[in-house]
Design goal:
Layout (H helix, E strand, L loop, with lengths): L7 E4 L3 H12 L2 E6 L15 E7 L5 E6 L13 E6 L2 H12 L3 E8 L5 E6 L5 E6 L25
């Protein structure tokens, strides 16, 4: 099995709801195991919390998450950012549109200095997302965008 890098998100009592939400956006296979199923806590109030969840999409996106145990500190939005990047503008804008529903846009998805479209948002569960669409013009620029031979090479500073 190849090594892979993927985000692992921590929640406080709503990992099941959050991962079901992400599953509704990205599709794929979602697995969830509770603290009780994995015999991971002696605290009975944690028995139904999610100890480990994994979402694997058809596009090979992998997202893992769990509920933070009661004994550990939890600060929403500060524990992880998730980056979505690629060149399929329709697909990535579709994800963006769903992620910002009920959330907050920190930086609109628009042309960035490096030539790609880039945006930042926090979804309704307090997770920070970065979306980068390689070499894509914004809706306003699509008619006046330079041809491929005139555009600068795509660089992503992330």
């Amino acid at each position: 099995m190849k090594s892979r890098l993927n985000p692992y998100l921590g929640f406080r009592d709503n990992a099941r709801e959050a991962m079901s939400f992400y599953h509704s956006i990205f599709g794929g296979k979602l697995t969830m195991s509770t603290f009780a199923e994995l015999q991971a806590s002696e605290d009975l109030s944690e028995k139904d919390k999610i100890m480990h969840s994994q979402l694997e999409s058809e596009e090979d996106f992998v997202l893992m998450a769990s509920d933070t145990p009661n004994s550990m500190d939890y600060a929403p939005g500060s524990n992880c950012s998730v980056s979505l990047s690629g060149d399929n503008e329709g697909e990535l804008r579709g994800y963006w549109d769903k992620l910002v529903e009920g959330g907050t846009v920190a930086l609109p998805l628009e042309r960035a200095p490096w030539g790609d479209s880039f945006g930042m948002c926090m979804d309704k569960f307090g997770v920070s997302w970065l979306v980068n669409i390689a070499g894509s013009p914004t809706a306003d620029e699509s008619e006046s965008a330079p041809s491929e031979s005139q555009s600068a090479p795509s660089e992503n500073p992330l």
